[in-house]
Amino acid sequence: MDDRTVQSALEESLEGFEALRREAQAVCEKTFGDEVYVRGLIEFSNYCRCSCKYCGLRVENSELKRYRLEKEDILEIMEEGYQEGYRSFVLQSGEDTYYTAEDLGELVRAAKKERDLAITLSIGERPRETYRYLKACGADRFLLKHECADSVIYDELHPHSSFEERLRCLVDLKELGYQTGSGFMIGLPKQSTKTLAKDLKLIEKLQVHMAGIGPFIPNEMTPMGTCEKGSCEMTLKAVAIARLLLPEAMLPVTTSLGVIDGGMREQCLNYGANVVMQKLQPTALRKLYALYPKEIIDGKSMREEKRELEAWLKSVGKKAVFDRGDHPTYQK
Ligand code: 5AD
Questions:
Q1: Stated pTM of the model
Q2: Residue 332 has what pLDDT?
Q3: CA distance 294 to 36
Q4: Which of 47, 48, 54, 169 is the pocket-test mutation for ligand 1 (most atoms within 8 Å of CB)?
């Protein structure tokens, strides 16, 4: 599919898109059958040095209460997850330089010691040398969404950095041998089906192993609080096209999609997504990881949440898999 074909596919109505949806679903089933990989997500710090105009964790948001988990706390949550059967963990935070490369390296090494599990880091932009070091410590994967492949829009939304730097990081991560994830938001101001086609062609060009595609949700604690939210339909179409461009990629149902409309999570699995994330940290901390407004249900144990997730996937004809869930081309 070239840029123009991708763009016109994005402009189809959902009815007009149905043939592509079926194709995406078939491609996904061919690679993954009815299996959906579950990742245990630990958002371990909401401190962030960045100024992303859409994100509630931005450094300018002084009203947000900040938290940081120490290595021991993170390991404890991972241990509970491990006991429950999780073998794939995503360690995510704002860009928090409190954690040095050595700190993060120690965390990864301790987590992997005598345990067969996969670690995905999602900690933002760091020097290549840090990425190299963390890979050597045992990190398997890295998530760093490119957010928007139009460099003008990107640079406007990210005054602290640049699209060029973002790409540099993604290329470094791939070269260093990480299973690399990118992704982007749907519904940013000034975005169009033309720029979305660029987003999709970029993940194809980079041959990323994962891509998280989710709608933008306005957050009142940011300068973009009165912007309109992104379209779920457009998100579904973009996920299906991502599946066609990258048949073996890990494509998660993004949390933001479910926040706008719970039913969309199931839809997304019918449009080629094959991964779901389950937060593992205590709910008090989930509330503070406030990228955008969302409802959080209190008082459930990790075990209950896991059972509910399995039951939900079963009810939509899928099988929850808690293995490492490596990309099919990955050699251990
Ligand atoms: N709406 C949707 N997604 C958001 N993110 C941050 N803020 C928002 C928002 N308001 C996503 C971005 C980023 C990750 C930290 O969360 O894609 O990569």
A1: 0.97
A2: 60
A3: 24
A4: 54
